[in-house]
Amino acid sequence: MNPNKKRLARRSMAFVLAGGRGSRLRELTDRRVKPAVYFGGKTRIIDFALSNALNSGIRKMAIATQYKAHSLIRHCQRGWNFFRAERNEFLDILPASQRTDEAMWYRGTADAVAQNIDIIDSYGVDYVLILAGDHIYKMDYEKMIEHHVDSGADVTIGCLTVPRAEASAFGVMAIDEKDVITSFLEKPKDPPGTPDNPDVTLASMGIYVFRWDFLRDLLQRDADDPSSSHDFGNDLIPDIVKNGKAQAHRFEKSCVRSSTEATAYWRDVGTVDAFWKANIDLTNFAPELDLWDRDWPIWTYSESVPPAKFIHDEENRRGSAVSSLVSGGCIVSGTEIRESLLFTQVHTNSFSSLERAVVLPYVYVSRHARLKDVVIDRGVHIPEGLVVGEDPEEDAKWFRVSDGGVTLITQAMLDKRAEAL
Q1: Is the pLDDT at 1 greater than 50, yes or no?
Q2: Does residue 303 form part of some domain?
Q3: Would you say 289 and 281 are in contact if contact means Cβ atoms under 8 Å apart?
Q4: Contact yes or no for 372/276 (Cβ under 8 A)
Q5: CATH number of the domain that residue 362 is part of
Q6: Is residue 50 in some structural domain?
Q7: 3-state class percentages of the chain: helix first, strand second, coil last, to nearest 5
């Protein structure tokens, strides 16, 4: 390695954009922003971006929040409070707080960074890594920063390789033979192929690397432009592609995979169906995402709870879990659980069954309940005898049934149902 590039991560900061609601998750984001939504039994979605940064050697981070940020802020205070300023480490929470104008909240992703220029200046960094806080993946960001330095680009953009037939849902890149971006297209009907494979397209991951001095000047010019929407994807990136040098960085060059992970894993769990499937996929014999990889751990807040407990061993009343993930503090009392994921402190009772269920923390399942293909929000009390997943029309009267047939259950829905019955 060139001596001038050593410790690039130490000369960089991660700026995580975590202000968007994520409305496609429906009622799951009624009380929390999308990056604060639970995932995988213990973690929150934002833990993946933060863990990637930490594991990559980055010790300076900031999180810009806006929509219903309390749950996210509390999680970061509890689970990410180990940074020490005396070691030149930081994790700052930057809520939209009208710092530059009493009438101005964050107007876009670029504006969220621009309003905090003075704070980033105080970090004394050479490079800024802009991250979305709402995707599930494992990635060594330092490799991407190295690529940025080697290429001499004004911006380096993290890109997924996706089939052309699926690329119309993304912002995509047309590139040359050296992966220099020649055009940036937002959700095109006919996405371009790549020089090495006309059947695939490079789609933006919403991850950008800049030299801070370059980005600082760019943000200040954009802030003064009344015609701008102050967004990286809509304004800043197209301008650099046209007038500067934008480099594509393919995810497969820096994705982190254990010996059990055959493919580069990245998921946008932005819909109820996608969220349910990504969680249920973890119950597979060899899941595509390895959460057990000790070389690249996903850090999070871990509650102090007792081990999970399974009780009763009688016919039709046996506490059991098959092909499932059961977190600490759970009590499975005479319940049959299959292909399901239970978060912390879920209590289930006798003669009930859960099949392909994603059950968020502190849910209580009463006796004789039968639940299949469901997502149950935090703190829900499932009443005795409730049956969900067997009659879609009946389920749709009371709950949110997705296009894929997954039923989302919240306490407010159950309360309305109880009032009606």
Answers
A1: no
A2: no
A3: yes
A4: no
A5: 2.160.10.10
A6: yes
A7: 30, 30, 40
Annotated binding residue 204: yes
Least Cα distance to 27 among 418, 377, 386, 357 occurs for 377
Residue 325 lies in a domain: yes
Cβ neighbors of 176 (< 8 A, separation 6 or more) are 182, 195
Is pLDDT above 80 for 100? no
Cα 229–chain centre separation = 24
Indicate the number of domains in the chain: 2
Q: Are 207 and 158 in contact (CB under 8 A)?
A: yes
Q: What domain range is 200 assigned to?
A: 8-283
**Same domain, yes or no: 322 and 277:** no
Tens digits of residue pLDDT in 196-248: 999 999 999 999 999 999 999 999 999 999 989 999 988 999 999 999 999 99
Asked whether residue 337 is assigned to any structural domain, the reply reads yes
Q: For residues 94 and 141, state if they share a domain.
A: yes
Instruction: Identify the pLDDT of residue 89.
Output: 93
Q: Is the pLDDT of residue 27 over 90?
A: yes
Residue 69: CB partners within 8 Å, gap ≥ 6? 18, 19, 33, 36, 93, 95
Q: CA nearest 49: which of 23, 80, 8?
A: 80
Pair (261, 313) in one structural domain: no
Reported pTM: 0.94
Do residues 342 and 265 both lie within one domain? no
Place of tokens 């209580």: 364
Hunting for tokens 């109820």 — which residue is that? 272
Report whether pLDDT(5) > 60. no
With vertex at residue 145, the alpha carbon angle to CA 141 and CA 148, rounded to the nearest 5 degrees, is: 140
Q: What is the mean pLDDT of the chain?
A: 94
Q: Is 171 marked as a binding-site residue?
A: yes
Residue labelled with tokens 């292909």:
339
Q: Does the annotation place 19 within a ligand binding site?
A: no
